Amino acid sequence: MRQLFSFFLLSLVSFSSLVSSTSAAAADYHEQLVLRPLPLSALLASFNFRSNTSLSEFEAHNFRFFPRSLGQILQHAGTQELHLRFSLGRWDSESWGARPWDGAREGGTGVELWAWLQATTDEEADHKWLTLTNALSGLFCASLNFIDGTRTTRPVMSFQPEGDHLNTTAADTHLLYGVLPHEVVCTENLTPFLKLLPCKGKAGIATLLDGHKLFDASWQSMAIDVKPICPVGGECVLQIELTIDMVLDIDRSKRPRDNPIPRPPPGHELPCNTSKPYHSQDTCFPTDHQANQDWTLSQIFGRTMKGICPLTDPTIPPVCLHVPDSRSVYHSDGVLEKKNLDRVSRCFEIKPDVDFEIVLPAPEDESAVVVKPETPLLYAERSFTGHGQERGGVQTILRNPSPDTEVEFIYMESLPWFMRIYLHTMSARIQGQTAKNESLIQEVYYRPAVDRARGTQLEVRMRVPPASTVFLTYDFEKSILRYTEYPPDANRGFDVAAAVITILSPAAYSLRTTSLLCSLPTPDFSMPYNVIIFTSTAIALAFGGMFNILVRRFVAADEGPEVGLAVLKKRINERVGVLVEKFKKGKGKKIETGVGQATGEVNDPSVETGVAKE
Amino acid sequence: MPRLLSSALALRRDPRILKIPPYLSLLCILVGAVWLFLLPLNEYSRRTYISENALLPGQVHTYFGGSDQNVLRAYKQEVNSLVGKSNVEINDKLESIVKGLGLKTARQNFTYSAAGRTFEGENLYAILQAPRGDATEAIVLVAAWENVKHELNKNGVPLVLTLARYFKRWSLWSKDIIILLSPDSIAGPQAWVDAYHDAHDSSRVASLPIKSGALQGAIAIDYVQEHRFKSVHIVYDGVNGQLPNLDLINSVVNIAGGQMGMGVALQEMWNHNDKYPDRLRTMLRGMLKQGLGLASGPHSSFIPYHVDAVTLQPFGEGWQDEMAMGRVVEGTFRSLNNLLEHLHQSFFFYLLMHRERFVSIGTYLPSAMLVAANFTIMAIFLWMKSGQPEVPAASTPESSDKDAPTPTAERDLFLPLAVVALSGSLSVIPLYVFNHVPESALTPLFYLFLVINTLLPISISLTTTKLFSPTLQQYHLVKSFSLLLLGMFLSSLATLNFSLAMLIGLLSAPLSFVKPYSSPVSRIVGYVLLNLTSPPAVLLASAAIWGLNVGDILREAAVAWHVTGTTSAVVVWCVWWPAWLAGSVCVLGQPAGQEGKVKRA
Fold first, then answer.
1. Highest mean pLDDT among A47-51, A54-58, A314-318
2. Quick one: pLDDT at residue A291?
3. Does B373 lie in the same domain as B286?
4. Could you tell me the residue range of the domain that residue B543 belongs to?
5. Measured distance between the N- and C-terminal CA atoms of chain A, rounded to whole angstroms
6. How many angstroms separate the CA atoms of B106 and B91, rounded?
7. Where is the signal peptide (chain A) (predicted)?
8. How far apart are CA A292 and CA A77, in angstroms?
9. A422 in B contact zone (CB under 8 Å)
10. What are the residue ranges of helices labelled H in B104-241?
11. Maximum Cα–Cα distance for chain A, whole Å?
12. Which pLDDT tens digit goes with each residue over B211-252?
């Protein structure tokens, strides 16, 4: 039944593609897995799923291969082009060479999102961006809703739209870019990702995507790209491309899941260099683990591939493997192996409902184990300089390996507001030269931070001459946060997003540096702080008292002028006495003059003394 | 009430009350000193505890062992074959081994010069990138080729290589692990840490070609002995008396002592019975090391950068082997790996007296503060005294009580300030000279300085007497200012380096009680006695007690000054010595017109 159904579907797809090929590239879908063994027992697996839907059908809410959940969000938020990245780990370009897809399908550690939104004003764009991030946050179980104003920038030079935007002008298209470096990508993000696929994770190459393996990878990046494509003379289509790239450590992946602890192997299983003179039963110089390139698909991914997705374009082979032609590769029945003309890759055509498995035995020829990776156009490494809690610096080392070609690129940083950079300290110098080289930096776009409202945005167009290394450095000051602004793990430090390097010439290529951990001055209300406070208080009290005694002249009350309550009391008595006297005088002038005089006599001396002492 | 006040005021005029401050000052010193000796008692010290819950020390199974021992033996063979070779050859071989493990390696050259010597070498380090990490944090494993006593770290280096290979197999690391193999224990790690934080002088120390994230902790292994060991000695003193977070030490104690069942020793107390004398000895040794502020191992250089670090040294005859040591390191690294935040929970200021007993700053600080306060009290007392007229009232107390308050005497400040400023500025000379002359000149120069140091107060005293004929008031003011400065410096220093403040405070305590003596005999006796507590005399005496050469001590101090940036010399020469000089000048003082008055008194 299933066979029949898939056959029916397949024929339907091929029929429809036949029909539509003449009119336009209508709704179609294809998926491909490229396996590329890398040096040091690593394996790059690139999963790519691509589907198109015509723009008119999309606007009519007629989703076919395009995931409806995402499509509705895009329509609601007026998004014309969307790029979403979930990444983990670091790409080791020294060993692995150039990045897959020329770096176009990867992001920095954490989550990265950039989109072109249709809006007439900045406020409207911000509003739509808020809608978009919140909706995507729900869809992908990620904290995308934390991309607020402080984490959003509007890149000027770094990003160019990948799609064809015909009937829109620059004025009403807004590019917004947000990044969450601290977001930990995990299985909860993979599940919604798989749900966007037409075959979910049930058939085709997506069956190999297992959270345990994906998140054990040395480097992995999940990407979603939505863009309109308008072929010349054809109807515009909206294309969604889902990409997962991961670099698996073959040693680690081959460990059984029920026993993942890397216990030391028994002594006799240890590969030893027997040429060493001291080699014996209990002394073993281990041979390099680099040669470990024998694996099977099920060892690496923990399962075999369950047929092919019936909706996929049958003209595109679902699995390709980049190994030298000289290496023998075994595969399961019902699979057709096709070696490509470049002699370093081969593809496999798989019949539906066949469990696909390939086996790469240990190579006989040590020299042709892996295809030598391409050298990237640029190496970039970023790190903090300085120490302490007050100031710091950032240093990016950019190395151009090419002997004859100059590399021109845009270096973009989006820094949190609490890193206040000193733009005047930004300088670039070539390694070996002490003076800074003015000609390296060609253009700077800088948008300063606003405390608690906006992060710093820095875009630098610069160049690196052939075969040289350039140090780009700048200093910054760390600001003190309000105590409520510290996260619960304040002493961990604050993540600073990766810098984005977009190469303009000689070829389009992009790369990210690693993210950084910036430690801010963190209040510590624990013991030393208390001690300092207590000692300071004690000293202040002691000093205050001592100082007071020293500088004040003490005299006894009877010696000095009268001050304080006594005087006040006396004055009040005085006034009361005068009043009483007046009252008495007015009431009984005739009768009690003697008494009045007597009180006057009593009061008079004190009045005199009071005046005299003043 | 007025009666009480007037009687209090009468008391204030009572000459007896003015006699109290010196006794109060003495009491402060005595209480401060006794306080220190109370600390090891159970009532004043506390049991240690793990404050950072994330550490979970000793909660994981350790798997280092089995066939890893075969690998260790092979690496040991490789290391043995390198003995006696040059730094670069050693690094070539070690680099090839580490590279074979799949780690990224790099080297760094450094050159320090101090005391006419040049310390140069090449650090080799490797970064084991956290399998799923992103280079934001790192922990360091250090093995110097030779330890501080210049013994070959014959087991430590192979153990670190084997551990690197073992750690590479795990996928659970959340932080990068940096393996640092330095040629020596002080200069190499210092150069590396400085360069890691870009705090280095790039003319002497090369920058690091590759880096990782923020350092969260460091463990150094100093494993010299060839045979099996009994327990682990934790060395924790940092440069300038800074200490690592107590949680790190507690974790190691917990893992080595609790989980692995091997003992832990501190401060070279190989057999500690946890009784008062042993606790006191541990504490005093710790204080002495802290006071000196020298680097005590490869870990010391990390601590000023707020990277908590300790050195582990196996010692004794026992049945623990290298694998057990490796498991201690593994357990500690697993604990550090658990850290979500930088170590901050537990204490940074403490005195350890047993592996499970400590006193925190709140308990011990008052002793140093009391000693420092004695100087301030005396300074204030002398200031008050200097304000009283020189000629005491001949009339009876009854008549003076009725008089107007005694007028304050005019204070002549110029000469006292000049003397204090002079002694302060002179202090730059020994500080500079002892840190910049070659090693061979240190010993003769020291004895020369000893002579000059003895003659200097005499000459200053004679000159001032001849030129200015200072009064008793001026001598009081000289002493007042110098003690005020001393008290101020020592009380601030006590919060930074308690032990140094305490040591200097006790050694300079006699300065509180010196005064110009009238009779030449007592003046000379006083001066001789004071000379016994002068900084160079104390240096000489301590050299004799520990059987060291003065030249060696000075060389170590100069090296520490240039390489690790130890600032104890500043405290000795610029805080203690000027105070001593001013005190000596006071002792030798012959106040003008004093003869008759003293007789009358």
1. A47-51
2. 59
3. no
4. 12-41+364-600
5. 117
6. 10
7. 1-24
8. 49
9. no
10. 156-169, 187-196
11. 142
12. 888 999 999 999 999 899 999 999 999 999 999 999 999 999
Q: Residue A514 corresponds to which tokens in the numbers above?
A: 């690693």
Nearest C-alpha in B relative to A491: B341
Question: Closest approach of chain A CAs to the CA of B7, in angstroms?
Answer: 9
Q: Is the Cβ pair B405, A276 closer than 8 Å?
A: no
Contacts of B24 in chain A (CB under 8 A): none
In chain A, residues with a C-beta closer than 8 Å to the C-beta of B362 are: 527, 530-531, 534
Among A516, A405, A415, which residue's Cα sits nearest to residue A468?
A405
Q: Is A562 on the interface with B (CB under 8 A)?
A: no
Q: Are residues B136 and B255 in the same domain?
A: yes
Q: Are residues B390 and B467 in the same domain?
A: yes
- Domain presence at residue B121: yes
CB contact under 8 A, A492 and B341: yes
Count of domains forming chain B = 2
A568 touches chain B (CB under 8 A): no
Averaged pLDDT, A486-500: 87
Is there a single domain that holds both residue B73 and residue B101?
Answer: yes
The CATH code for residues A379-518 is 2.60.40.740
Which of A384, A220, A360 has the alpha carbon at shortest distance from A292?
A: A360
Among B326, B355, B384, which residue terminates a domain?
B355
Interchain pair A531, B70: CB under 8 A:
no
Output the six-digit token pair for A364.
Answer: 């006989």
Window 227-256 of A, Cβ < 8 Å to B: 249, 251-252
| B452 and B472 housed in the same domain | yes
Residue B4 lies in a domain: no
Task: Give the span between the Cα atoms of A217 and B134, in whole angstroms.
Answer: 12
| Angle CA A227–A230–A234, to nearest 5 | 145
Amino acid, res. B268: E
Identity of the residue in A88, A393, A491 whose CB atom sits nearest the CB atom of B344: A491
Task: State whether ipTM is beyond 0.90.
Answer: no
Starting at the earlier edge strand, list the strands of the sheet with A295-296: A295-296, A358-360, A330-331
User: Which has the closest alpha carbon to A461: A407, A399, A515?
Assistant: A407
- Among the partner-chain residues A260, A276, A527, the one whose CB lies closest to the CB of B361 is A527
How far A332 CA sits from the closest chain B CA (Å)?
Answer: 31
Contact between chains at A556 and B165 (C-beta distance less than 8 A):
no
What is the pLDDT at residue B111? 93
A531: nearest CB among B73, B136, B365: B365
C-alpha A128, offset from chain centre: 22
The reply to whether B277 and B371 lie within a common domain is no
| Domain positions in chain A | 25-258+289-368, 379-518, 565-613
**Nearest CB to B74 within list A269, A276, A290:** A276
For residue A382, the chain B residue with the least C-alpha distance is: B211
Beta bridge partners of B232: B264, B314
Residue A553 tokens read as 């002249």
The pTM for the full model equals 0.85
- B267: in domain: yes
**Minimal C-alpha gap between B220 and chain A (Å):** 22
Taking CB atoms and an 8 Å cutoff, what residues of chain B touch A478?
Answer: none
Q: What is the CATH number of the domain that holds B309?
A: 3.40.630.10
Of B303, B324, B355, which residue constitutes the final position of a domain?
B355
Q: Which residues does chain B have within 8 Å of residue A276's beta carbon, measured at their own beta carbons?
A: 74, 77
* B297 and B397 both lie in a single domain: no
pLDDT per position as a tens digit, A416-468: 999 999 999 998 888 877 776 778 899 999 999 999 889 999 999 998 999 89
**In chain B, which residue's Cα lies nearest the Cα of A516?**
B136
Chain B closest CA to A322's CA: distance in Å? 22
Residue among A114, A225, A248, A254 at smallest CA distance from A163: A225
B101 and B231 inside one domain = yes
Residue A577: exposed, middle, or buried by beta-carbon count in 10 A (0-12, 13-18, 19+)? middle
Of A218, A517, A532, the CB nearest to B213: A517
